[in-house]
Amino acid sequence: MTALPNSALRPVISADQIQKRIRELGRQISDDYRGETVVALGILENGFMFMSDLVRALDGPVICTFIKPKYKQTQQGEAPLLEIFFSHELNMLGKHVLLVEGLVHSGVTTEFLMSDLRARGAASVKLVTLLDRQSARRVPLQPDYFGFLVDDAFLFGYGLGSPEQTGRNLPYLAATS
User: Which domain holds residue 162?
Assistant: First the structure.
């Protein structure tokens, strides 16, 4: 596991900025779903910390569950397959689903997930992401709610990172200098 020295970190979004924006998103989402039960469906790993704080900022009933997209290598020259693991098979029929992402990058996986949830009979499917990297989008996907627009190549902290590095536990978002 690679440790990131503090001297190599460039803070991008502070912990206070993150928490303030989550409270704002919580009010907006709560208003939009007033009187409804929301199924908050968190995408692991990058979305776990954001989802934790977001669901606490929501008023009204919330059901929490998680999914983990996993890419499976295929034969050489073929596109990788996407497998999706739900924490348990949740019946989405007639439910109002809030897909919770830490970062929307290309949008390919997110678009696939949203289509799959609609096909399962969800009453509505909306997307909330802490970070939106629109410059990297490969499909015409627009989040219903987002925290911050970003362009940094790689951000870590506040739940984001890679399996090879430490830093997911930082209370803020940073980039390497």
Answer: 6-27+37-176
- Comparing C-alpha atoms, which of 58, 59, 53, 79 is closest to residue 138? 79
| CB proximity list for 47: less than 8 A, separation 6 or greater | 100, 101, 102, 130, 159
Q: Are 18 and 147 in contact (CB under 8 A)?
A: yes
| Total count of domains within the chain | 1
Ranking 1-10, 51-60, 97-106, 157-166 by mean pLDDT, the lowest is 1-10
Average pLDDT over residues 87-112: 88
Instruction: Output Rg (C-alpha) for the chain, integer angstroms.
Output: 16
Q: For residue 150, is it within any domain?
A: yes
> What's the whole-model pTM score?
0.87
Assign 83 a pLDDT band (cuts: 50, 70, 90).
low
Give per-residue burial for 142-161: e unless 16+ CB within 10 Å, then b: ebebbbbebeeeebbbbbbb
Which amino acid appears at position 137 of this protein?
Answer: R
Q: Residue for token digits 């678009």?
A: 111
Give the pLDDT score at 163.
75
